Amino acid sequence: MNFTEQFPVLNNYIYLDTAGSGILSQSIQQWRKAHDEQFVQEGSKFRLYQADFLEDVRDHVARFFKAKTENTFLVQNFSIAFNAFLDGLDRSHRFLILQSDYPSVNYPIESRNFKSIEYAELDENLEQNILNKVRSFKPSILTLSLIQYINGIKIDLDFIKKLKQEYPEMLIVADGTQFCGTESFNFEDSGLDVLLSSGYKWMLSGYGNGFMLIKDHVNEHLYQDRIDHALPQEPFLKHKKLLTLCFEPGHLDTLAFGTLKQSILHLEQLGMDVIEKRLHTLSELAKKAFTERGLLTSDVAQRTTHSTIFNLKSDEALIKRMRDAHVLFSPRGAGLRISFHFYNTEQDLEKLLQIIDRA
What is the pTM of this model? Predict the structure, then answer.
């Protein structure tokens, strides 16, 4: 499949930086232009039906991830929602987090006065490390990124499901920003209790939108100090429940969240099963080629499965060759990070390998 017509940036670059930022399609650009033109022409009238508009977006998000609509919240990004989530928890919680996880995951936990925090080592034995810590530390909440932003290590979702079955009282909270949009996912059937994500990476929906999905029982853990306080009774707020007021305060941008809906429609049109299969193929080809060239750290090379995010050992000469060849990537950690989405091809990988092999 050729995606250059929908994604013109592919005509100018070998785009290997979706882990940094997804790209916008031509059709979404046209939708956004029509949206803003309507706002220009109608002013406040344009917002008369924004509540129905946003509820429709919520329905699409819930359907896409097989979550409950009433437990789906539209948020500006992962970080805002995650901080609001943490502020709704009692400080008696004991957190287990991963060493070197995304700063927007670890720092908000570390900087609050929760009872205690311990860390699981992030290496090729990640799942066993987590299990050992859960058994010894007995956390009340496990929080982690489903895919690690620096090296692309992906948690085994079957492990998460079994872990939840073994420790049903422990909440499992996940950052899905590097995961959502890469494969089919059934939230209600997963081991996760909470999933939060920004939309600007693999969901390809630009900036200013994200979502938060929770299970029914999570309600009893959040904002318990407010449940006896009367909710607003103004006509424009009286239909909102407590968690809606906490996670969706103020006005939401129909441009941003409308873009999220359009992206979901596009992903569904392509087929998440097709996308998942394509990414699996690219991941296996890339991992094999990078391992043969000694470009991966041992913790990544030794894992059985992997995402399409890789951190390659590099030097200034390789970085210059890649930039000269119009390859878009991100410096991360001790190397350079590249990532493949469905619009990438085996030819993109071959071109990258040719650049690497010139040394």
Answer: 0.95
